[in-house]
Write a structure and sequence with these properties.
96 residues, alpha+beta, Alpha-Beta Plaits, 3 helices, 32% helix
């Protein structure tokens, strides 16, 4: 069953974004992941948290594939890179 990683990202410095975007693509593909949505104009329709600078949704074939991607040794440096200019909330949810 498909699984989705949903990110709400608050950007504080944009310098890391281009490098992250290029380096993450092959790691994402390696685990069968694909970018479903990347939006800087998300609208919060419910809840009280502030609207993120960017919202991202990734799709994976399974929850295990999503978790393997996030634990991928090649991805860890990109987490650190992103942390230099952003903070985020992430959720892993299963499809129906």
């Amino acid at each position: 069953m498909a699984a989705y990683l949903m990110f709400e990202i608050e950007i504080t410095d944009t310098l890391w974004g281009e490098e992250y975007g290029e380096r993450v693509k092959p790691i994402l593909a390696k685990r069968g992941g694909k970018l479903i949505s990347r939006s800087s104009d998300a609208v919060r329709v419910e809840g009280k948290r502030s609207t993120p600078t960017i919202a991202v949704v990734l799709e994976f074939p399974t929850s295990e594939a999503a978790q393997a991607w996030h634990s991928e040794p090649d991805y860890k440096p990109l987490i650190n890179l992103g942390n230099t200019g952003s903070s985020l909330e992430a959720l892993l949810v299963g499809g129906v």
